[in-house]
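Hi R.,

Here's the chain you asked about this morning:
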Amino acid sequence: MHILNKEIILPNGSKIINRIAKSAMSENLSNKNNQPTSILINLYKKWALSGSGLLITGNIMIDSSAIGEPRNVIVENRDNFKLLKEWADTVKNTETHLWAQINHPGRQAMEQINTVLKAPSAVPLKYGGRKKTSPKIPLELKENEIVDIIESFAKTSLILKEAGFTGIQIHGAHGYLVSQFLSPDSNIRKDKWGGSLENRARFVVEIYREIRKKVGSKFPIGIKLNSTDFQKGGFSEEESMEVVKILSKEGIDLIEISGGTYEVPAMMGKKMKSTKKREAYFLDYIKKARKITATPLLLTGGFRTSAGMEAAIASNDLDIVGIARPFAVFPNLVNDLISKKQLNFATNIKKTGVKGIDGSMNIIWYEAQLKRLGLGKDPNLKLNPWFVFFKYALLIIKHKIRKK
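And the predicted structure, written out as tokens:
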């Protein structure tokens, strides 16, 4: 049997049929009311046939007042339950799991489309990411607001479970709210939610516990966690290891490792090097994590070749290989990989030559490919980056006008 085609049983008893997961990518394919669209649903119908053991959705927002991107799906009540069920049903009659990634952006919400930014502390983004020329200082969350957000994570999880999604992933990486609470750089609180690592980790632990209460012991709960923020004074590798221990002890079912924030986007390859010998970005970290936990580990970032994926699984340092952007241009990726029809899934996108714009291409160029797939079109590797950029800018302007 192909090593990537072996099943794995999660701690709660759920079976993943192989060792390949489509990791989360922001689809940005809701309608103007942040509801799932037929384009989004059709995209997942295509991916459901890709052969992947696990599909993880892009950001689903838990709060309509805190949106990461203008066309993120929002689930804060059952108003769109029928559409959510249709989305979840895309994997019906397959053995593929479909997990919903749930998120709150905190200070990393787009200022252009959010009236107020809230975060663990009144600490703005320093550079890069989504700030303007003068970064907007977020409001520090009050105790009751923190409790409400924890409850919102759990409420959203229950709605998604009842809609038919087969698992939940908490987004605890890339500088979003959970990540902000974990980082001593963005969390300078003096109460029980800040200071020591135990206090800074309290937020994610309480989110996990509250979700578990709502969904029960047999429903998979995972988390996407930073190996490090790659920022001086930020969430360190040593602290990340401690959080892995904490969450493993709590009984979480799957820990996905990534790294970086939108200030230092290591998850996009910045400051990371992949080689023919070791193509994954965070492989050194995962080797250390394997020694401290028996919880299944999923590693995302840099995997592009069959040889690299096979070697990673054969090492037993990780349990599942996570692949994201290649799925945007190789929608049948896992079937092609297992059958050996294709062994390399490298992607090279077109660039504008403008540094400030080209950084965003690592997200919005791929989002444009996802839209093509959802419309029943083939990927277009020659897609003009200027066309993509101006279309995205227009979307933000329209969203901002509607918010006024």
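The chain has 13 helices and 14 strands.

Let me know if you need anything else.
M.
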